[in-house]
């Protein structure tokens, strides 16, 4: 199962904390993590194996959106920062829209991610 992990800068520490809290599950061989660039680098530094795409503002959200549309990514954990402006907002909305189009579970905050991960 491919899970995308994405976090805005103000939420990266929470993402790393979340990953560490679920290390046993996320390290297991039936889970593959994919990530936008900078989030992926943080995850790698925390010891996770991650396939990285471009950084979000450079097209990473759009690349993950394409994987959702292609049926490759089965879950998206996206810790958004609602208090910041993002130059790539159209890409962010495209990703969320395609999760809805293809009925792919999408968590946009840690509390929902916690619920989704418990369902695996
Ligand atoms: O901008 C992002 C999501 O919209 C995240 O991108 P980075 O992981 O490269 O910071």
From TrEMBL:
GO MF assignments: methylglyoxal synthase activity
Residue numbers annotated as active site: 61 (proton donor/acceptor)
Domain MGS-like intervals: 1-120
Catalyzed reactions per annotation: dihydroxyacetone phosphate = methylglyoxal + phosphate
Keywords tagged on the record: Lyase
Top-rank lineage group of the source organism: Bacteria
Matching InterPro entries: Methylgl_synth, Methylglyoxal_synth_AS, MGS-like_dom, MGS-like_dom_sf
Gene3D superfamilies assigned to the protein according to its UniProt record, in alphabetical order: Methylglyoxal synthase-like domain
EC code(s) of this entry: 4.2.3.3
UniProt keyword annotation of Lyase present: yes
Residue ranges that the Swiss-Prot or TrEMBL entry lists as coiled coil: none
Binding site for substrate: 8, 12, 36-39, 55-56, 88
Protein purpose: Catalyzes the formation of methylglyoxal from dihydroxyacetone phosphate.
UniProt family annotation: Belongs to the methylglyoxal synthase family.
NCBIfam families: MGSA, PRK05234.1
HAMAP family from the UniProt entry: Methylglyoxal_synth (MF_00549)
The protein's name in its UniProt record: Methylglyoxal synthase
Organism: Urechidicola vernalis
Encoding gene, per UniProt annotation: mgsA
């Amino acid at each position: 199962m491919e899970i995308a992990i994405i976090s805005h800068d103000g939420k990266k520490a929470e993402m790393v904390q979340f990953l560490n809290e679920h290390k046993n599950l996320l390290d297991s061989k039936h889970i593959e993590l994919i990530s936008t660039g900078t989030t992926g680098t943080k995850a790698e530094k925390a010891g996770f194996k991650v396939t990285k795409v471009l950084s979000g503002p450079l097209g990473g959200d759009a690349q993950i959106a394409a994987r959702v549309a292609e049926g490759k990514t089965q879950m998206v954990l996206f810790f958004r920062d609602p208090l910041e402006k993002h130059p790539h907002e159209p890409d962010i909305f495209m990703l969320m829209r395609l999760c809805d189009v293809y009925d792919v579970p999408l968590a946009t905050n840690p509390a929902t991610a916690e619920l989704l991960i418990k369902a695996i």
